Structures are given as structure tokens and as C-alpha cells.
Automatic annotation (TrEMBL), chain A:
Keywords: Cell membrane, Membrane, Sugar transport, Transmembrane, Transmembrane helix, Transport. Residues 1-20 are annotated as: Disordered. This is Maltose/maltodextrin transport system permease protein. The keyword Ribonucleoprotein does not apply. It comes from the Bacteria. It holds the Pfam family TM_PBP2_N. Residues 1-10 have a biased composition (Polar residues). Part of the ABC transporter complex MalEFGK involved in maltose/maltodextrin import. Probably responsible for the translocation of the substrate across the membrane. Residues 304-525 form the ABC transmembrane type-1 domain. The lineage of its organism: Bacteria, Bacillati, Actinomycetota, Actinomycetes, Bifidobacteriales.
Automatic annotation (TrEMBL), chain B:
It holds the Pfam family BPD_transp_1. Residues 97-295 form the ABC transmembrane type-1 domain. Residues 1-21 are annotated as: Disordered. This is Sugar ABC transporter permease. It is found in: Cell membrane.
Length: 536, 309
């Protein structure tokens, strides 16, 4: 009896414990709420900090953006409901900042002349022009200077004949200081709060010392002191003079007058430009020059055609080889299929940027394996002749891309029911007919979207081109830094970041054009394959 | 086994003369027509696929370390290049390696998490702008980040003035930039997979009193593990291979990734640095290849799922 009771009790308490556990799980738990408070707290702290920093820099738009975003995020997460927003916000924030904002900003840059020589606003350009254009004043008196470091900045200290000592650096003109002393040679030996550079310091910081210019007084026309040896300095004055009323720059040595003609730089007769200029809005001129300027239209057209050839041939060749191998291996009686498959997908598993570099070694003209061993010491310029480089790129991309197509086709083939081909066989169809009329159309239905995305991927296959040929061999006689194998995206990268003349505006204009092309091609492709119709 | 193949061969053999009992030659011919030629094709394809990798392995073990000496494959075997790799003051290979792994793993983990959150919303919740949102995601991800690289550079330059940890030459900033692409294709693939997880399961959990957070973490995520693994791997491989953005953001050598460091290293003195580069490439590829083969099954099913969906 009693034992039975205790059994019932035990059963009850087990059930109660179970119920409690479920109730506990169902109720709002402390953990997630704490996590939420901590994360939002961190975010708010960072937002407030950034807002202050931006206010200090007077970037009002950015400050407003930060505050609005922070408020919206807080509102979303402290509200009941709005579940979808709660799940979408984390990813969307990154998407908004680093994709959408970046795209919009690219669009904005594409309407400017931003790039080397056009980096800042007009005031910055004027200041740096005046500073850079300083020449030594003829018969300038020589000053005995001591190079000193006060805080982070290097400066000059000068003792004049009366024993007064003056100090100045690039930002503050020479001014008198107390409690300093100089030795008999006229060099300053002690300066409170500053360190006197000795000979070794001067040697190791030669570049800094020789570029240092210290204004003589707050009036810029008085000129600046510069030294070439860290011992003696001379007066330098700007050879340019800015006339604020007329908005012109005059070269005092030649008398040439440079005016602002709205091109983002001071220009004189004969289109002589002063560098640096400044950033201006150039409207559609980057876009029109892509299509209309003779210098750009030619290279752009070539690159465009090659990009399309490259993407189409790459997709087709990898698909054909992948499909062929999938058909070959789609035979249950064949032994060792797993081993073959493991080896065949090696190129897909090996990081792509390394593969391209390895291939550039294999195809090296003088020392590469292909020329030296396979072709017995031939001198074939695989990567240095326009035509061969294109072929090399296509072969390497075939190597890189066929395993993916092989895997996809294997999967797709196996999902096609066997009885379809059995039935066709009974009706007397040949193997080729079964493939052409039954398997291939079915396969295409499932593989078509992948072919489109593979096209888009190859269209922007920066790594392969840049690592294998760097877009080379170079084409001479074009207005742009483009080679014969450059595709659009590597061209954009090179215009923006490679070489001495960086043109951000033009690069961004190209980027927008490329985006339009890819979006258009993909839209047409997706429409054709109707793959998006399944979204519901 | 032999019997089975024989009978199968007999059944389909058209000529009546052979059905009496095939001679050794005709049997070999049959074998060749049936599967033998497939092996031939397979061997040729395997040489094409495997040779460059075998070559880089041999070059990494070649102690002379030049491009031309690497042509005589496996003529000398030493680990010298691998040791020297970690003793180059100008090229901190160890740092590159750690940077790549850390940046790759963090980006992959965060991408999967952010993508899964969004995919959950698209798959399970009904809200206005859902369909448009999905289409917009696909459209936006067609604009590769390399194209907006100028804007990203300028954006980070500005951010760096607020806080240097988010500016140019910051590894964290690079991760954040990569996370800009965390939605897009990832969400689309996961959305397809989440749809195949029966809704009844989370409805049952909801009746039992589980909240949406709980359903997401304890039901959806574990059930979708295969696709999460695929996305994580693809994202990891993509991040490891990425050159253009990384080379723009990461300036100083000790902060760079393998793609940036190794490329700059090998492009400086191409034919002399070959052995070292090869050793670096082999070490760099090992984690990716190992994980790839480990997850191979999921990748194949994930790829075809994404395509058939």
C-alpha cells in the first residue's frame, strides 16, 4: 500500500517537475533580456560617442544619420511585435552601410572628378599650391637653425644676434621664447619642453627635416624658412600669388596668370594646369567620356567585348566539360567513382587566388613547367601575347570551374528518374536521343539559374585575371591603364588604385555602367528561366 | 560479382554469336565499351585536375626554391621552405595566416547568423514588402563590393577619424565591410532550405509556449545545420580568397591576409620566391581543403538544393 502511494507521489512530482520546466521555458527568460540590454547599451554608447566626434568635426549630416539610426534600432527592439524588423535589422544595417550607401556614394563620386590631383576642396588646393610653389629668395640671408622636436612636431629654433631665441614649426610661425640658451656657434642648445636633434637624429629623419617649412611670420608673404642640411636655412617665398578678388593665381617668376575656368583647377593659356586641383561636380562627363571620348571608347569597347566573351566561353566550357564528366561517371557499374570524384573536385577545393598564381608559374615563359618540360624548352609567351594570354585564361578558368559544374550536373542527373529513360529505351530511342531529348532538357531546368549566376560571377572574376596576368599584356597607345586581358572589373580596380594617376570619378562611372549591364543580363536570364516565379 | 556483370553484359549484347560464351577478347572489349573508356576519360581528367596541385606540393619541398628547379618534380625533398616561411621579417607569414583564419572564421560565422535571421523572417513571418525585399536582396548582391571599392575606401577613411579601430588598416573594419554582403545569396539559399523545414514543428512548439527566439535557436537552426555549414564554408572560402578589398583596406604587412601578402610577395621576385610561395600556398590551402572534404556531402546537396529550389 505505502509503496504504491510513494510510487504515485513520485509520478506526480516527476510530472510537476516536467510542467515546471516547460513553464519556465515558455516564460520570458532573464538571459536573452540581459543580452539585449547589453548589446543595445553598447550600441547606444558607441552612437553617442560617434555623434559627439562627428559634431566636433562639423559633419552634421553624418551626425544626424547616426542619431536617427540609433533611435530606430532602439525603437525596433524595445517595442512589442515588429518581429520581421527585429530579425532583418542586424543584417540590413551592414547591407545599408557597406552596400547600399557604398553604391550610392559610388554613384555620387561618378559625377565628380575625384582622384589624383583632385582630392580636396578649393581652399585646400590653394593652400597646398602656395606651400608647394615656394622658391628660394635670391640673396636670401642665411639663418643658423637648430632642428628641435617639441611634442610630436619638428620645428626650427633660431638665436638672433641679441641672444633672443625664436621657435616655430610648420603650423606656427616663428615666435620668441624665454628660458632658452644658445652656444657660441649660434645653435640653440637648450629649449624647455623641446628636444634638440643631434646629428644622428638629423640623418635618420632627413626627409622630414628637408621638407619642413616654417613661416617667418603670420603674414604668408614674408616667406618660409627651409633647410637642406639641418644647420643653415634660407628664406623661401611662394612663386605663386593668389588674388582672392579676381580668383586667379599668378606665377611671380613668369607672370603667367592661371584662372579658375570651372574645371576643378587653375588653368592658364595653352591649357597649362596647376596641380593639385580640387574636387568639383562634373555632371555626366565621366559617363559621356566612357562612350564618346575617342581615347576611352576604344579600350572600353574592347574590354567590354572580351569580358562578355570570357564569361560566356567560361560558362559554356566549364558546363560542357562538367556535364560530360558527370555523364561519364553516372554509371553505377563503374568502380572507384568516389576516388575519381575526390580528385576531380580538388581544383574547386583549392583556394582560387592560389590556383591562379600557381598557373602563372606553370605558364611562365622562361622557366615554367609547360614550356620547359611539356614542350621541351619552348619559348611560348603564354601570358605575354594578347591572344595566347586570353587562351591561357580560358584554360585556367576551365580548370577552376569544371568541378563545380561536375558536382551540380551529377546531382541534377541523379534526380532525374531512371524510368523515363527506361521507357524511352523500350520505345527504341538511342542513348544519344535519350540524352538530347529527355535528360538534357530536364537537367537544364534545374541548372539554368546556376548558369546565370555563374555568368554573373565570371563577369566579375577579378581574382583570376589580376592574379594570372594582371590584365596584361599592356596595350600601348590607349588613354587608359588597361591591358589586353583586363575585364571590366579589373579595369575599374586599375583605374582607381593602380598607377600614379588615380581617377576615382571615372572608375566609379565604369562601376555603375558594369552594374547596369550585370543587372540587365541577370534580369533577362532570370526572366527566361522563370526561377523567381517560385517565390511566393 | 563477375557473374552479375557477365549476365548483364549478355542480356544487352545484341549479337547472338557472343551469347554462347564470350571469348577473353570480346569480354575485354565489352568491359571497355561498358566502363573501361570511362576509366580512361577519368584518368585523363584526374591528371588535368590534380597535376597543378601535385606540382605545387613538389615545388614546396624543393630546397632550391626557384621556378626552374621546381620543374624536376620531387627531385629533392626537404622541409626548408616551410621553416624559412616563418622567418622572414618583411613578410610575416604567421601573421597573415592567423589574420586570414580569424577574419575568415568571424566573417563566416557572422554571415551565417545574420543571413539565418533574415531567412527566418522571410520564411516564417508574413510582412509587407517581403517579396520585394527578397528580390531587392538578389539585385543588390549583383553589385560586387569590388565595384564600390572607392566608396568603401573613402567611407573607412572617414570612420577612421572617429575611431581608428574602424578605419583603414583595421581588420575589424574589413570584417564589417564583408558583412555588408552577408545577406544576398546567403539569405536566398537559406530561405529555400528553411521552407523545407515543416512549419508544423514550430507551430507545435509555439503551442507549447515557446517564443520566437527559442524556436529560431532550438528548432530552426539545428534542423538547418547542413545549409548553415555550406554557407559558412562558401563564405569562408570567399573571404580567404578575397584580394581587392583586403588589399585596399589592410595596408601594413602584419595586418594583411594571405591573399594580399602572398600575392605581393610572389609578384615581387617571381621566379626566385617560388619555393617559399609554394610552401605558403600549401599551408594556406590545407585548412580549406580539409574542411571542404569534411563537408563535401553537404556542399553537393546544398548546391543542388539551391539550384532545384
Amino acid at each position: 500500500m505505502s509503496s504504491h502511494d510513494s510510487q504515485v507521489d513520485q509520478g506526480k512530482s516527476r510530472k510537476r517537475r516536467q510542467a515546471e520546466r516547460i513553464a519556465e521555458r515558455a516564460s520570458v527568460r532573464l538571459g536573452p533580456t540581459l543580452v539585449k540590454i547589453v548589446l543595445l547599451g553598447l550600441l547606444d554608447a558607441f552612437s553617442v560617442y560617434s555623434a559627439f566626434m562627428l559634431a566636433a568635426r562639423r559633419s552634421w549630416y553624418f551626425m544626424a544619420a547616426v542619431i536617427v539610426v540609433a533611435l530606430v534600432i532602439n525603437w525596433i527592439y524595445w517595442q512589442q511585435g515588429h518581429l520581421a524588423a527585429k530579425y532583418l535589422t542586424p543584417g540590413l544595417i551592414f547591407l545599408l552601410i557597406f552596400q547600399l550607401f557604398a553604391i550610392t556614394y559610388s554613384a555620387y563620386i561618378s559625377f565628380t572628378n575625384y582622384g589624383t590631383g583632385h582630392n580636396g576642396d578649393k581652399e585646400q588646393a590653394i593652400t597646398s599650391l602656395l606651400q608647394a610653389a615656394s622658391t628660394k629668395v635670391p640673396n636670401s640671408p642665411s639663418y643658423t637653425v637648430t632642428v628641435v622636436q617639441c611634442g610630436k612636431d619638428l620645428g626650427f629654433a633660431i638665436a638672433n644676434d641679441d641672444g633672443e631665441i625664436q621657435v616655430g614649426n610648420a603650423h606656427t610661425p616663428l615666435h620668441q621664447v624665454q628660458a632658452a640658451s644658445s652656444d657660441e656657434s649660434g645653435h640653440v642648445s637648450k629649449l624647455p619642453g623641446c628636444q634638440v636633434l643631434d646629428f644622428n637624429d638629423l640623418l635618420s629623419r632627413q626627409d622630414e627635416v628637408t621638407t619642413l617649412a616654417v613661416p617667418l611670420s603670420s603674414d604668408a608673404k614674408q616667406g618660409q624658412l627651409k633647410t637642406s642640411d639641418g644647420q643653415t636655412a634660407f628664406v623661401y617665398k611662394p612663386s605663386l600669388e593668389y588674388n582672392r578678388a579676381k580668383d586667379t593665381m599668378t606665377d611671380t617668376t613668369t607672370g603667367l596668370v592661371y584662372t579658375d575656368r570651372g574645371t576643378g583647377a587653375f588653368v592658364a593659356e595653352g591649357d597649362k594646369e596647376l596641380k593639385p586641383g580640387w574636387k568639383i561636380n562634373v555632371g555626366l562627363s565621366n559617363f559621356t567620356s566612357v562612350f564618346a571620348s575617342k581615347q576611352l571608347r576604344g579600350p572600353f569597347g574592347q574590354v567590354m567585348v572580351w569580358t562578355i566573351e570570357f564569361s560566356v566561353i567560361s560558362v559554356a566550357s566549364t558546363f560542357i566539360l562538367g556535364l560530360f564528366l558527370a555523364l561519364v561517371f553516372n554509371e553505377p557499374r563503374m568502380k572507384g567513382r568516389k576516388i575519381y570524384r575526390s580528385i576531380l573536385i580538388l581544383p574547386y577545393a583549392f583556394p582560387a587566388f592560389l590556383s591562379a598564381l600557381v598557373w602563372s608559374g606553370l605558364l611562365n615563359e622562361k622557366f615554367g613547367f609547360v614550356n620547359q618540360v611539356l614542350l621541351g624548352g619552348a619559348d611560348i609567351p603564354w601570358l605575354h601575347s594578347a591572344g595566347l594570354a586570353k587562351i591561357a585564361i580560358l584554360v585556367v578558368n576551365l580548370w577552376l570551374g569544371f568541378p563545380y559544374m561536375f558536382l551540380v550536373c551529377m546531382g541534377a542527373l541523379q534526380s532525374i528518374p531512371e524510368d523515363l529513360s527506361e521507357a524511352a529505351k523500350i520505345d527504341g530511342a538511342s542513348a544519344w536521343q535519350i540524352f538530347r531529348l529527355i535528360k538534357f532538357p530536364l537537367l537544364l531546368v534545374s541548372v539554368a539559374p546556376l548558369l546565370i549566376s555563374s555568368f554573373a560571377m565570371n563577369f566579375n572574376n577579378f581574382n583570376l585575371i589580376y592574379m594570372l596576368t594582371q590584365g596584361g599584356p599592356a596595350q600601348t597607345g590607349t588613354g587608359l591603364n588597361v591591358g589586353s586581358t583586363d575585364i571590366l572589373i579589373s579595369m575599374v580596380y586599375k583605374i582607381a588604385f593602380v598607377g600614379a594617376d588615380k581617377n576615382y570619378g571615372l572608375a566609379s562611372a565604369f562601376a555603375i555602367v558594369i552594374f547596369a549591364v550585370v543587372a540587365l543580363v541577370s534580369a533577362i536570364g532570370f526572366r527566361a528561366s522563370k526561377s523567381l516565379e517560385e517565390l511566393n | 560479382m563477375v557473374n552479375q556483370t557477365q549476365t548483364q553484359a549478355l542480356r544487352t549484347a545484341p549479337s547472338p554469336g557472343r551469347s554462347i560464351g564470350p571469348s577473353r577478347w570480346t569480354r575485354a572489349g565489352l568491359w571497355f565499351r561498358r566502363t573501361g573508356w570511362r576509366h580512361l576519360v577519368g584518368i585523363v581528367a584526374c591528371i588535368f585536375a590534380g597535376f597543378p596541385i601535385l606540382y605545387v606540393l613538389s615545388a614546396s619541398l624543393n630546397e632550391q626554391g626557384t621556378l626552374i628547379s621546381s620543374n624536376s618534380m620531387f627531385s629533392s625533398v626537404s622541409w626548408g621552405n616551410y621553416f624559412q616561411l616563418f622567418h622572414m621579417p618583411q613578410q610575416p607569414y604567421g601573421n597573415w595566416y592567423i589574420n586570414t583564419i580569424v577574419i575568415g572564421l568571424l566573417t563566416a560565422a557572422m554571415s551565417v547568423f545574420l543571413g539565418a535571421l533574415a531567412a527566418y523572417a522571410f520564411s516564417r513571418l508574413r510582412f509587407t514588402g517581403r517579396r520585394v525585399g527578397l528580390l531587392a536582396l538578389i539585385l543588390v548582391q549583383m553589385f560586387p563590393q569590388v565595384l564600390s571599392i572607392v566608396a568603401i575606401y573613402l567611407l573607412l577613411d572617414t570612420l577612421g577619424e572617429i575611431s581608428p579601430t574602424l578605419g583603414i588598416n583595421s581588420r575589424l573594419a574589413l570584417i564589417l565591410v564583408y558583412l555588408g554582403g552577408a545577406l544576398g545569396t546567403n539569405t536566398y539559399l537559406m530561405y529555400g532550405f528553411f521552407n523545407t523545414v515543416p512549419k508544423e514543428i514550430d507551430e507545435a512548439a509555439e503551442i507549447d509556449g515557446a517564443g520566437h527566439v527559442r524556436i529560431f535557436f532550438t528548432i530552426i537552426l539545428p534542423l538547418a545545420a547542413p545549409i548553415l555549414a555550406v554557407i559558412a564554408l562558401l563564405s569562408f572560402i570567399g573571404t580567404v580568397s578575397e584580394y581587392a578589398v583586403a588589399s585596399t583596406v589592410l595596408v601594413s604587412p602584419e595586418k594583411q591576409t594571405l591573399a594580399v601578402g602572398l600575392y605581393d610577395f610572389v609578384s615581387q621576385k617571381f621566379s626566385q620566391n617560388w619555393g617559399l610561395f609554394s610552401a605558403g600556398a600549401v599551408l594556406a590551402a590545407i585548412p580549406v581543403v580539409v574542411v571542404f572534404f569534411f563537408l563535401q556531402r553537404y556542399i553537393v546537396s546544398g548546391l543542388t538544393l539551391g539550384s532545384v529550389k
